[in-house]
Amino acid sequence: KEIKIGSKSIIINKVNLHGNGNNKLVMEIEFSGSKTGKIFLVGTPAYNAAKHELYVPDFTFDIHTQDKLLTAAGWLLNDAIASYFRSKAHYNISSLLDSAKATIEQQLNSPIDNMIKMEGSIKDISIEHIYPLEEQLIIRVMINGNLSVLVEAK
User: How many angstroms separate the CA atoms of 39 and 35, rounded?
Assistant: First the structure.
């Protein structure tokens, strides 16, 4: 993808996402074009329950990127780059939630042993909090549903 900024442009070659250990996501962007290098955007992950979508509404240049760009290529600090990635940093997790619900319901509706059996269903799974760690994204969920435990006497 090419992003034009005035008479100059950059071509996005590679994008990596990871956490920074402070509940922020870091987007590492390798680019070429009028300049070549890496920039880093930092933001807080959020969840839109109506759309079942993870997104990062506040991606901005991290402080180290700002300092380097001010001295080397100030034109890159244009908000067009951050705005572009804010608009693209949306991930629909409907299929993940559906898959998790099916897996959990399968486990809820299985026997524990010969005398104990569970029966249950899930009404809703909601995202409570998102924790971006350096190597993984932990998502805390709330599950609402019904569970019955049946114990047979022998």
Answer: 11
Chain centroid to Cα 83, Å, comes to: 17
How far is residue 31's CA from residue 17's CA, in Å, rounded to a whole number?
Answer: 15
Question: Which residues of the chain have a pLDDT value below 70?
Answer: 65-78
pLDDT at 119: 93
Helix segments in the chain, DSSP class H: 63-72, 79-88, 94-108
Three-state secondary structure call for residue 6? coil
CA distance 84 to 110: 47
Backbone phi, then psi, for 4, in 5-degree steps? -90, 135
Say whether 36 sits in a helix, a strand or coil.
coil
Predicted structure pTM score: 0.74
Q: 3-state class of 41 per DSSP? A: strand
How high is the pLDDT of residue 33? 82
